[in-house]
Structure formats: C-alpha cells, structure tokens
C-alpha cells in the first residue's frame, strides 16, 4: 500500500522540527498563558508598566527594553491567535477578556504614575511611539511569526534564546504606557491616539501572525483537539469565566469559532482598517524625509559649511519655509537657484530666506553711528536748595546733642565764611551753658557734619520775668 503523500502543512511542520506529540502540550501552555486572574501575571504586568513608564519619562531606551522583556502581554495575544486557528471559542473569549483587562490595568497604572510626577514633558522615547506607519506593521507581523514559531517549537532549537528578541521587537508595553502618559499628563489626544494606534497595530499583527503559524502547523487537527479537549476542560473548570458561561448557549460552541474563511476575513478586515492610517503616516514620513534631504542639499549650494550659522525648517502640507542665518554675503541668484532645487525635488512651494550676520567692523560702525549723545551735566544747585539741604543736615545732629532739659533752643543759623563754617545757636535758660557742655556740643557737631573747623557761637537769653500779682484786702 502506497503511503499517503504529506500535505504542504505537514511538510512545513517537519521542516520546523515540530513534534506532533508536543502540540497538545504547547496548546495547553498557550491556554494557561491567557489567564489574567493569576498573581504572577498581575505582578509582571504592573512591574512592566511601571518600568516602561519611568523609562519613557527618563528617555532611557535601556530601561524601556527591560520593560519589554518582563511584559506578559505576549501570552494572551498568542492565545487569541491560537483560538482563531483552532476555532476555540472559549479560548478566544478567555484571551479577549485577559487582553482587555491587561490593557486597562497597564494604561491606568501608567497614567497614575505620570500624574504623580512633578513634570510631564514628552521625551523622544514617547514621541517616537506616536507616529506609527506601515513599517511598524511589518515589524509586528514578522515578530508575531517569530514568536509563534518559537512557541510551537516548545523552546527547542534556539527558541529560548529567540524569545527576548521577539519581546523587544514586538514592544507591546511601551505603546500602552505612552497612552497612559497622554492620559496622566492632561489628556493629550495626539499622544493617546498615536500610541493607541501603534498598540492596536502590534496587537492585530501578532494575532494574525500567530493564526497563520498555528494553522500551518496544524494546531487545529482533530488529534490535537481530541487530546486537549479533556485537559482544557479540566484546567478551565475552576475558571470564573468558564463557570459564568457554562450554563449559557455559548457553552455548546466552546469548540467552534466559525468557519475558517470567516475567521480569516475578520483578521484581514482588521488589518485593512489599520492599513489606511498607517499608509498615510508612512507617506507623510516619506515626504518629510525627501523634503529634509532636498533642503539640506540646497543649503550646501549657498556657500561653505562654516558660513552657515543656523537654519530653521517648517514643513507644511503644501509648502516649505526655510530660514537660514549666514556669516557672509550670498548672491540673490544662488538663493533663487536653491529655492528652485527644493521645489523641483519636493513638488511643493518653497521659500528660502537668508539673513546675514554683520561682521565685527560693521557692528562697530553701527554702534558708533547709533551711539546716543552724552547726557548734559546737571545744572548747579541753587543757593536756596543748598540752604535747605545744609539746614536739614544740621537739624538732626543738633537735636541729638542739645541738652533740652537744661536749655530751650530758640533758633540756629549756619554761616559760610572765608575761615570756615559757623553755627550760631540762640537758647533760653536760667543760666548759660558751662564750658564743658559747650565744648562737647561743638565736637559732636564737627564730627556729625564732618567739619573739623566748625565754630560754634552760643547766644544766651534769660527767660522773661513773670509779672507780679497785686491785690488788696
């Protein structure tokens, strides 16, 4: 009897060195990886989200890579791909619930950490995950294929060493934490939408890749389903989701996820929906790259590289604006020629503005030309202002030094003579001030007014006699 010719799926399975007896074990391994209600899974999820969030805020690629290695999200997503390949409705529901809960927990925890931070400034690591394109879709598809093959081989043949590389390439947790950053920093919709699109792209691509690999290696074959059926039900029996759905109509369809063509169409339709914004983003990236290269080459034609000081480039959908500051003169025909070169390469309207920085000689001439005239000297003070100022300076030390208990100060004069300053004081008391008191007063005024040659003249005046009272008996 001639043996049956192996099918293409069987040939690929052999080429990948996948043992048929190991497939039920792989199936059960992926099934268990979709469990959310597990303390180890939740801890890994929170730790990965925390490390990724801090790495993004610190702008540290090494820290972000460490979070990728811890992230447990790969398990439920691969389980979703296996559910599509094996038409396992219960596994699909289980993985979907786990993915939704994991996504919510990671985003909310990341947003909470960002909200606690004293600053919320988007770094380059954050901004790099807000503009996904078709290249990211390609990376996710290839990474999903690699991860699924590694899982199917059960860690043999280099699978263990390939798992860290797959986790880094897929990068599921950093986009989720970027979404959390957008929420925690005040609902920045540009960051939330861009990073959310990247996460959905990675998710859909990995599920599709896992579906393709698991289908090709015949994880849906009857012998695998027969061996895994009882084991799966035994593992699922304590599951809350299983107990919740066991008494519903869905329980009869746990092993049936619909026909293959509808499952395939569902995944293809999802990728097509994501294809539109990713394609637009890729074309935008292409236009920016072409525009920057055209501007760079055009600026080189203006003169030597050391003549260029600064440049500013504004890229708009329909035109390009370039502002350049140079250290020398640039002819107008060179500027117009550079503009035409930019227009020819980009197909957009371009404006090139060149500003020249003045040389040291030109700056010196300008400073000399616009130097303000020196201010005129202030007018000399008037005699009246000098008198008021001098008397004000005399009044304070005089009040401090005058013996008001012994005599009443009636008035004072300040005189200027060829022999120096003179202060005349008129006072009233029962008897004149003695010599030591006069000497102390004179020295105090000399020191206070900084006039060593000051002469003090005291004019004493007795109090007026009170009139006597006259009266009769």
Core attributes:
473 residues; mainly alpha; GMP Synthetase, Chain A, domain 3; Alpha-Beta Plaits; 3 domains; 3-stranded mixed beta sheet; 18 helices; 6 strands; 60% helix
Task: Give a brief description.
Helix content is 60%, strand content 11%. It is mainly alpha-helical.
What does this molecule look like?
There is one protein chain. With 473 residues, the protein is mostly helical. The chain has three domains: 8-258; 285-365, K homology (KH) domain (GMP Synthetase, Chain A, domain 3); 385-461, Alpha-Beta Plaits (2-Layer Sandwich), CATH 3.30.70. Helices cover 60% and strands 11% of the residues. A hairpin with a 3-residue loop joins strand 1 (308-315) and strand 2 (319-326). Helix 2 (23-33) runs parallel beside helix 12 and helix 3 (39-58) packs antiparallel against helix 4. The longest helix is centred in the middle third of the chain and has 41 residues, at 260-300. Mean pLDDT is 79; it is low at 155-162 and 250-255.
């Amino acid at each position: 009897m001639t043996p049956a010719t192996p099918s293409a799926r069987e040939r690929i399975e052999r080429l990948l060195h996948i043992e048929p007896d190991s497939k039920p074990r792989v199936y059960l391994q992926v099934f268990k990886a979709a469990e959310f209600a597990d303390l180890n899974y939740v801890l890994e999820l929170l730790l990965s989200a925390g490390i990724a969030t801090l790495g993004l805020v610190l702008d540290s690629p090494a820290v972000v890579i460490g979070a990728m290695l811890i992230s447990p999200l790969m398990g439920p997503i691969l389980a979703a791909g296996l559910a599509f390949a094996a038409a396992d409705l219960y596994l699909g529901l289980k993985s979907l619930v786990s993915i939704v809960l994991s996504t919510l927990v990671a985003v909310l925890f990341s947003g909470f950490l960002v909200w606690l931070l004293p600053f919320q400034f988007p770094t380059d690591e954050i901004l790099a995950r807000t503009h996904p394109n078709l290249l990211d879709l390609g990376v996710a598809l290839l990474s999903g294929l690699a991860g699924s093959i590694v899982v199917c081989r059960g860690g043999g043949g280099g699978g263990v060493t390939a798992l860290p590389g797959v986790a880094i390439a897929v990068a599921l947790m950093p986009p989720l934490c970027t979404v959390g950053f957008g929420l925690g920093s005040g609902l920045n919709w540009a960051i939330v939408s861009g990073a959310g699109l990247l996460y959905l792209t990675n998710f859909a691509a990995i599920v599709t890749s896992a579906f393709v690999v698991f289908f090709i290696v015949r994880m849906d074959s009857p012998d695998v389903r027969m061996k895994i059926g009882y084991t799966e039900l035994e593992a699922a029996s304590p599951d809350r989701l299983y107990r919740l759905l066991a008494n519903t109509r869905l329980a009869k369809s746990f092993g049936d996820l619909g026909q293959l063509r509808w499952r395939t169409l569902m995944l293809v339709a999802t990728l097509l929906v994501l294809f539109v914004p990713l394609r637009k983003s890729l074309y935008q990236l292409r236009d920016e790259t072409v525009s920057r290269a055209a501007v760079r080459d055009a600026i080189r034609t203006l003169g030597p590289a050391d003549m260029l000081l600064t440049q500013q480039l504004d890229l708009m959908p329909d035109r390009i604006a370039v502002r350049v500051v140079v250290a020398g003169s640039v002819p107008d025909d060179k500027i117009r020629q550079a503009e035409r070169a930019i227009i020819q390469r980009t197909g957009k309207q371009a404006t090139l503005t060149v500003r020249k920085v003045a040389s040291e000689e030109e700056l010196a001439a300008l400073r000399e030309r616009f130097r303000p005239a020196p201010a005129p000297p202030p007018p000399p003070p008037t005699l009246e202002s000098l008198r008021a100022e001098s008397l004000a300076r005399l009044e304070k030390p005089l009040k401090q030094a005058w013996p008001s208990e012994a005599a009443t100060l009636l008035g004072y004069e300040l005189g200027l003579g060829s022999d120096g300053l003179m202060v005349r004081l008129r006072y009233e008391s029962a008897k004149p001030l003695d010599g030591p008191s006069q000497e102390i007063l004179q020295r105090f005024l000399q020191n206070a007014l900084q006039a060593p040659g000051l002469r003090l003249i005291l004019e004493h005046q007795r109090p007026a006699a009170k009139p006597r009272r006259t009266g009769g008996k």
